[in-house]
Amino acid sequence: MKAVQVVTLTGPSDVEVREVPEPTPTAHDVLVEVHSVGISFPDLLLSRGEYQFKPEPPFTLGVDFAGTVLDPGAAESSGFTVGQRVAGVNLHGGAAEQVANPVIFTFPLPDEMSYDEGAALPMNYLTALFALEERGGLRERETVLVHGAAGGVGTATLQVAKGLGARTIAVVSTRAKADFAKAAGADEVVIGPDFKDAVKELTGGRGVDVVLDVVGGDAFTDSLRCLAEQGRILVVGFAAGQGIPEVKVNRLLLGNTDVRGVGWGAYAMTRPGYMQQQWHRLAPMIESGVVKPPIGATYDLADFGRALVDMDERRTLGKSVVRVR
């Protein structure tokens, strides 16, 4: 079968589509015929050997995927059946014509979702839910400020926050991204690096309860200044490439505010059943239409490397998806 593999740790331009043996499921796996694969930031880091998880090349990329069950194997007790539509997530391995994925990391794909949308769901939306609910303690009617709001995690956060009953303010860098974030469900949108004053005005001077930050860099200090009393900044990533920001902790003391790390993968993958609980939590949001992943661009399997480059150069909106078939 065909698979997108990292052969040398020299970056996304050098990933290859190669012929590899079909996977053999274990007793804890379900065998899936892959239709679509999401493009994720960990794929980019894996291609350079920069991710915290470092498999030895050659290895197959692909963090999240969607397709149909070929063989539920010994895992039939999970309820999967041959031909059932599913989505799944793992550290890597989904960018192939078939994948043997652990049952606990595989989920029934609702009829409302296409395969492209299914491949955009697992990592971003489960990360957003973990960030807002588990780490952020988000409460109904609170206000959430979302940086990088036109990206995959950003749009997921906008929608999950709405599903949890919160008000959302998106921060983006261009008018096109503003329109995209608004279409994804943002209540308000602020354009440009100087967002602090606009956010204060939108909140009547109070500030926001939660900031989800996938950007880091220079925006971090102004994010702290945007927090209401007992506000929380959720640190998800550092996409700005400006280094890791530092916190003057006296500011946290004076404002009764928090900075909290969000490491969904390390948490969820070591707690069997946790992702399934999260998926059940998302289900009513999907059924209501609040959660509907915006697909920014689609690519053929042979262009997986180009999709990663486009994401790295910030040319994409929403979630990019590679179509396997």
UniProtKB/TrEMBL annotation:
Concerning InterPro entries, the annotation shows:
ADH-like_C, ADH-like_N, ER, GroES-like_sf, NAD(P)-bd_dom_sf, Zn-ADH-like_protein
User: Taking every annotated instance into account, which residue ranges of this chain make up the domain Enoyl reductase (ER)?
Assistant: 11-322
Q: Which domain of life is it from?
A: Bacteria
PANTHER family named in the record: QUINONE OXIDOREDUCTASE-LIKE PROTEIN 2, SHORT-CHAIN DEHYDROGENASE/REDUCTASE
- Name-wise, this protein is NADPH:quinone oxidoreductase family protein
